[in-house]
Amino acid sequence: MSQPFCPVPVQSSLQPVPGDSGLPIIGHTLGFMRDPINLMRKRYDRYGPVSWTSVFGLKMIQMLGPDANQFVMLNRGDLFSNHQGWDYFIGRFFHRGIMLLDFEEHRWHRKIMQQAFNREVLKGYLERMGPHISSGMAHWHQVPDFKVFNAVKQLTLDLATDVFMGYELGPEADAVNRAFVDTVRAGTAIVRAPVPGLRWSRGLKGRKVLEDFFRKELPAKRASQESDLFSVLCHARTEDGEQFSDDDVVNHMIFLMMAAHDTSTITLSTLFYYLAKHPQWQERLREESRALGKTCIDYSDLPALNGIGMAMKEALRLCSPVPSLPRKTVKDVEYNGYFIPSGSFINVVPYFTHYMEEYWPDPDTFDPERFSEERREDKVHPYAWVPFGGGAHKCIGLHFAEMQVKAILHQVLLKYRWSVPADYEMPVDTTSLPVPGDGLPVTLERL
Fold this sequence. Notes:
Helix content: 40-55%
Distance between the termini: 59 Å
Order of helices and strands: EHHEEHEHHHHHHHHHHEEEEHHEEEE
Structural class: alpha+beta
Number of helices: 15
Shape: globular
Radius of gyration: 22 Å
CATH architecture: Orthogonal Bundle
């Protein structure tokens, strides 16, 4: 039975947000974690684009579809707080990362940080990446029971530490990787208290490992003039000479390192899966890469890898690395005839938007050509394809992500062919960020 989210103001012509709490105590949390697309579809069909439910101990309003994405992400009038939305989930683990800042403070931090992602800096990152990609994947065919997710995650973490920190991790790599995994997974903990052995507790320990790691390196980076992101953040200044504090640098490094390797790992794993299921596309992209005639690509080569670009966009549609984006209202909000009071948790869901048959023909089908210039199905609505978010908080590293995915997949295509059994379907674990539930085992053939 539908229940109103809250009473509307007296004499208001607006409607209360409809919805239901679901099961006692846990609400719809399990459905949200295990099958978010199906859950959102049912809610959209039952209530329309706006409804509330109970998840993770909160009454949360789901705002679904491209129109809702646009309304929330553009955030005209500063109605929604990123910080207050994300803080409940990951604030303890990614304290004051760029995604968790609001309004003028966010704009100030982003202006400084943008210096680490301009065109010339990206060129330098790509130059550093090429040889490390080659050496990082050279032994993959020798790994017994090879699983894509594990191998790619290790590679992207190694690349992130080299590009963002200027050196290889060495014996600390396993501890740092484990810390990143634990901090990410802690955000969707059902028991949100430091109970030993559970997600929340492991996340807090992971945060401590990462803080200690970056603080140890900070003095040397303040003194260096290297081109890695850590050094750039230490020295970046506004026109007025303002720069990041030590705490700012540590917080941004933890968040950016997580975002840079986790999201790329998810996108590459998705690409591996669909290119294994669709070998004709794998061969098409391989020929595109061979036509470049080089192992390590340059920045000027990126436009020539158009096929990889389309396949990447389709992978991001099919498996949005950040499946939902929470916010909290800081003012009363009117949307679509509904009243949403100040202090409400709301959520937009790119993962669901990308599967809406109202906007995407055959949404379950891997079809990179939908992003071709002739079709451009993503143009049906400016916020129908939103894997990088939008508005002032659009992912600051989106060009880095595209560059890294192209650089890695290009070399993989030249060195390996891979396949999965015809009846294999990759299970997707959506209990945190969406990842292959079985690690994605594939058969690798060295070319």
